[in-house]
Amino acid sequence: MPEGENQPLGERVTNRSQPPRSAAFKEFIGSQWAPRSEQLPARAEVAEAAARRRAAISAKFPGERLVIPAGPLKVRSNDVDYRFRPHSAFAHLTGLGVDHEPDAVLVMEPLAEPAADGSGHEATLYFRPLAGRDTDQFYSDPRYGEFWVGPQPTLEEIHAEYGIATADLSELEVAVTKNAGNRALGGVQVRLVREVDLNVDALVDTSRYNTGVDLEQADTQDAALTEALSELRLIKDEVEVANLRRAIAATVTGFENIIRALPAAKAHRRGERVVETAFFSAARTEGNDVGYETIAACGNNATVLHWIRNDGTVRDGELMLVDAGVEDDTLYTADITRTFPVDGTYTPVQKRIYDAVLTASEAAFAAAKPGNRFRDVHAAAMRSLAESLDSWGLLPVSVEEAVSDEGGQHRRWMPHGTSHHLGLDVHDCAQAKRELYIDGIIEEGMVFTIEPGLYFKEDDLAVPEEYRGIGVRLEDDVLITADGAQNLTAALPRTTEEIEAWMAELAG
Ligand code: GLY
Ligand code: MN
Ligand code: MN
Which reaction does it catalyse (predicted)? Predict the structure, then answer.
């Protein structure tokens, strides 16, 4: 093995320690382990729902091979990875959540005849199963080895739990490329969710190149699969709604932690971090993680829409805006914002601004019902905010002009959207067609946020001084039912009076 400057850079990661290489060591470390349990796990509750999701996507792409990767481990820095989180389309179609399964790929193989359940595809999950104790992987692989990261499931275990056929990752290449080619010439057309796993992209691209498939056309076809998988998530099934309810319940716990941590936050030079970490403890103890970086913003920082530095102080007399969501172990996330007074009581001007946001939220809730368009929810909130701003003399034009296509002046103080779909991704269904998203009709089973806000920056000369340095957002997550918007986040108070009472109670 070359040493010194002749040693390739890629090998130097092993310089800090090396396992023994002797045959005696390998034999010894591979021996004297208790046998593994042969009991297979029970069928997961999500298995049937995931099968229905696969059947729906199968029906859209008859006769084609569909390839949906989970994605690889991602490097944070040098040889340290982030915790693994599978791609959302993969999680949706398999039901697999936390930690499952780096480098795995779901392949849906078209069937000549429909299966007993009517599906036109057979799904197989390719992954790296638990390696035996007699392999190098067991003790010497810090990314995948059981000694380092704990045991992976076996092929049989995943099959039993999720009801999907399984195969070793080493069989993936043949499964993806066999008979692949131009459909018109008798080949099997392959569609891939691209840019999730670059190794799988390369595998498919090489196969396409070798079989004369038009790469540009294939790219368009791949995009249609990604789009369809995103649109499949526009309506949540019962399992998904239950997952979201759990994520929301954990998020409520996180907000309660925050209120209890306020004395410590006020005493610390980076009080916003105290708030952020009070929430994070609920995220990790009750769920998998935060679904996105927590925004813990006091005073003027609340007017910075993506304030995630969270290194400011927390001061009496100011408003604290917290936008946070727990991601459940199933990978579904909540997305909630509350804006509360650090000292427990809103000042009159803070209350005036808060109430305008609350009124806009109520207008948006009223518009969030089946048959309306998604864009109507935003329009209702915008008109309401424009009316409030006009009543305070802040709009340079009439309300009608402001809300017209030629206006938009009110958006100076509310530049973001009012709603986005919510689910496995905080901004869920992001690849859905415009006609089904912002221009789409609201349907039962949709889950989205309602999150109007007003943000008056400290250097905004277009507003009176007393408004400056105040940012307010109120964000709830709603489930659309036949009756309209059911507020899934109603366990957290919304009005100033309710919030003050809630804070007083938690302060004990
Ligand atoms: N926290 C991200 C959002 O509200 O959209
Ligand atoms: Mn949101
Ligand atoms: Mn949010």
Answer: Release of any N-terminal amino acid, including proline, that is linked to proline, even from a dipeptide or tripeptide
114/417: higher pLDDT: 417
Angle at 195 between CA 194 and CA 199, to 5 degrees: 90
User: Domain 238-507 is in which class?
Assistant: alpha beta
- Is 41-232 a CATH 3.40.350.10 domain? yes
At 100-122, the pLDDT tens digits run 999 999 999 999 888 887 789 99
Cα distances (Å, whole numbers) of residue 254 to 54, 240, 291, 322, 327: 34, 21, 13, 11, 12
Ligand 1: which of 378, 448, 451, 477 to mutate, judged by most atoms within 8 Å of the beta carbon?
A: 451
pTM of whole model > 0.90?
A: yes
pLDDT digits (tens, 9 = 90+) for 429-443: 999 999 999 999 999
Q: Which atom of ligand 1 is nearest to the CA of 420?
A: 5
Q: How far is CA 444 from CA 266, 368, 472, 477, 478, in A?
A: 43, 10, 29, 14, 11
The counts of H helices and E strands in the chain are 16, 17
Ligand 1 binding site (Cβ under 6 Å of any ligand atom): 292, 323, 335, 420, 426, 451, 475
Residues 189-207 pLDDT 10s: 999 999 999 999 999 999 9
Domains of the chain, by residue range, sit at 41-232, 238-507
Q: Which ligand is nearest to the CA of 308?
A: 1
**Residue from 422, 475, 476, 477 whose mutation best tests the ligand 1 pocket (most atoms within 8 A of CB):** 475
Beta strands in 295-452, from DSSP E residues, in sequence order = 295-298, 319-324, 326-327, 336-341, 447-450
Ligand 2 midpoint to CA 364 (Å): 14
Instruction: Please name the residue whose Cα sits nearest to atom 3 of ligand 1.
Output: 335
